[in-house]
Amino acid sequence: MVTLKEWIAALRSGEYQQGQELLHPTEDEFCCLGVYCDLIDPTWSLSVFPNTGNNVLTWHTDYRDFAPGENIDMETQEFLAEYWNDAGRTFLEIAEYLEEWAYEEDGMIIIPEVVINAYHDNNE
Fold it and tell me: What is the number of structural domains in the chain?
């Protein structure tokens, strides 16, 4: 299992080029959740994207949009993907946000719902 501290360190490391929309949208790019998956296991495979026929990189064949739900709370993943990574926030900004607001509980990385709701309320 990858800890929150390890994920934050990887986001700050400069070793990953940031991409959007998918975990690993191109050979060289990762979204913040893709970085987490890559730390667990850097095994990616090329798959055909349904409905478009485009090739995409998937993690363990089942994951292209989100990390495993047993590692990062799904509400946290959706929030980070939509409002942080895909909204153009840098990995450094995401790392700072995670460091300030996220926590680990029973091996799960979580941003509290009240924090997510407050973010929505302040950014509407």
Answer: 1
